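Hypothesis: this fold can be encoded by more than one sequence.
Test: take the structure tokens below, design a sequence, compare later.
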């Protein structure tokens, strides 16, 4: 009789033998499987890019200012940045809660509206302070 350590009364289970298949895989099956996997990957990538571009938000990411107007970091710049961050936070929350495509479209529309408002407010303040010169047409009648 074999003695085991105290508390271990059972022998270790034997390892299972690896599964042996009777017929070898043919190279045609491997090629077919590879083609199928590649097709599925391409289709998934297509659907992912199609659904990602379905919302109106991607085009407006370039509209977010990376640097302050005229290089001036003042309270208006920091207010603008906080408005953008708040809009992004609200967008994430709204997209998490969205149950339909319409909800997602509305979330993106609200996000774009908030970005436009933040940029407009920042621009107006900088115009008032004289950092941006208004461009327009001046006509003089004489």
């Amino acid at each position: 009789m074999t003695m085991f350590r105290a508390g271990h009364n059972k022998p270790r289970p034997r390892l299972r033998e690896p599964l042996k298949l009777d017929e070898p895989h043919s190279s045609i099956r491997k090629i077919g499987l590879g083609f199928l996997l590649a097709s599925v990957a391409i289709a998934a990538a297509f659907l992912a890019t199609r659904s990602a571009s379905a919302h109106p938000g991607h085009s407006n990411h370039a509209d977010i200012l990376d640097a302050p107007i005229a290089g001036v970091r003042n309270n208006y710049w920091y207010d603008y940045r906080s408005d953008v961050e708040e809009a992004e936070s609200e967008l994430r929350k709204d997209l998490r809660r969205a149950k339909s495509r319409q909800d997602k479209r509305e979330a993106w529309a609200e996000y774009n509206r908030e970005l436009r408002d933040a940029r407009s407010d920042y621009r107006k303040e900088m115009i008032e302070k004289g950092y941006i010169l208004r461009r327009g047409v001046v006509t003089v009648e004489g």
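The helical segments are 27-52, 75-97, 101-128. The radius of gyration is 31 Å.
Hypothesis status: open.
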